[in-house]
Amino acid sequence: MGLINDLLVGIIHLIFVAMDVLMMMIIVKIAYQRWKFEWFRSINNAVEPVINSIINYLDKWSIKITGKKYSEKTLLIFLILCLWLIRIGFFI
What angle is formed at CA 89 by the lines to CA 88 and CA 92, rounded to 5 degrees? Predict the structure, then answer.
Protein backbone atom coordinates (compact mmCIF):
# COMPACT_ATOMS: atom_id res chain seq x y z
CA MET A 1 0.00 0.00 0.00
CA GLY A 2 2.89 2.36 0.66
CA LEU A 3 4.08 2.09 -2.93
CA ILE A 4 0.73 3.15 -4.38
CA ASN A 5 0.56 6.10 -1.99
CA ASP A 6 4.07 7.23 -2.92
CA LEU A 7 3.25 6.86 -6.62
CA LEU A 8 0.15 9.04 -6.27
CA VAL A 9 2.07 11.69 -4.31
CA GLY A 10 4.77 11.67 -7.01
CA ILE A 11 2.19 12.14 -9.77
CA ILE A 12 0.59 15.03 -7.89
CA HIS A 13 4.00 16.68 -7.49
CA LEU A 14 4.66 16.29 -11.22
CA ILE A 15 1.31 17.92 -11.97
CA PHE A 16 2.24 20.88 -9.78
CA VAL A 17 5.61 21.19 -11.52
CA ALA A 18 3.89 21.13 -14.93
CA MET A 19 1.48 23.85 -13.79
CA ASP A 20 4.41 25.96 -12.56
CA VAL A 21 6.26 25.56 -15.86
CA LEU A 22 3.12 26.50 -17.78
CA MET A 23 2.69 29.57 -15.59
CA MET A 24 6.29 30.62 -16.29
CA MET A 25 5.69 30.16 -20.03
CA ILE A 26 2.66 32.44 -19.83
CA ILE A 27 4.59 35.06 -17.87
CA VAL A 28 7.42 35.03 -20.43
CA LYS A 29 4.93 35.42 -23.29
CA ILE A 30 3.14 38.31 -21.57
CA ALA A 31 6.42 40.05 -20.68
CA TYR A 32 7.71 39.71 -24.24
CA GLN A 33 4.48 41.04 -25.73
CA ARG A 34 4.44 43.96 -23.32
CA TRP A 35 8.06 45.12 -23.14
CA LYS A 36 9.78 43.39 -26.12
CA PHE A 37 12.91 42.38 -24.19
CA GLU A 38 15.38 40.96 -26.71
CA TRP A 39 16.58 38.25 -24.36
CA PHE A 40 12.98 36.93 -24.09
CA ARG A 41 12.66 36.51 -27.86
CA SER A 42 14.25 33.05 -28.10
CA ILE A 43 12.36 31.81 -25.04
CA ASN A 44 9.12 33.22 -26.44
CA ASN A 45 9.72 31.55 -29.81
CA ALA A 46 10.23 28.20 -28.09
CA VAL A 47 7.20 28.62 -25.82
CA GLU A 48 4.75 30.07 -28.33
CA PRO A 49 3.65 26.78 -30.01
CA VAL A 50 2.75 25.25 -26.65
CA ILE A 51 0.87 28.32 -25.48
CA ASN A 52 -0.91 28.69 -28.83
CA SER A 53 -2.14 25.09 -28.74
CA ILE A 54 -3.51 25.59 -25.22
CA ILE A 55 -5.06 28.93 -26.20
CA ASN A 56 -6.70 27.34 -29.27
CA TYR A 57 -8.19 24.63 -27.06
CA LEU A 58 -9.47 27.24 -24.58
CA ASP A 59 -10.86 29.31 -27.46
CA LYS A 60 -12.87 26.37 -28.82
CA TRP A 61 -14.06 25.52 -25.31
CA SER A 62 -15.11 29.11 -24.54
CA ILE A 63 -16.98 29.43 -27.85
CA LYS A 64 -18.92 26.23 -27.08
CA ILE A 65 -19.84 27.40 -23.57
CA THR A 66 -20.40 31.15 -23.95
CA GLY A 67 -20.85 31.58 -27.69
CA LYS A 68 -18.33 34.44 -27.68
CA LYS A 69 -14.84 34.72 -29.08
CA TYR A 70 -12.31 36.22 -26.66
CA SER A 71 -8.95 37.84 -27.34
CA GLU A 72 -5.69 36.04 -26.68
CA LYS A 73 -4.93 38.18 -23.63
CA THR A 74 -8.32 37.39 -22.10
CA LEU A 75 -7.77 33.69 -22.68
CA LEU A 76 -4.33 33.90 -21.07
CA ILE A 77 -5.85 35.56 -18.01
CA PHE A 78 -8.54 32.87 -17.93
CA LEU A 79 -5.86 30.17 -18.11
CA ILE A 80 -3.91 31.77 -15.24
CA LEU A 81 -7.10 31.96 -13.19
CA CYS A 82 -7.91 28.29 -13.87
CA LEU A 83 -4.39 27.19 -12.91
CA TRP A 84 -4.60 29.24 -9.72
CA LEU A 85 -7.99 27.76 -8.81
CA ILE A 86 -6.73 24.22 -9.42
CA ARG A 87 -3.72 24.85 -7.20
CA ILE A 88 -5.86 26.35 -4.42
CA GLY A 89 -8.37 23.50 -4.78
CA PHE A 90 -5.73 20.93 -3.88
CA PHE A 91 -5.04 22.66 -0.58
CA ILE A 92 -8.65 23.00 0.59
Answer: 90
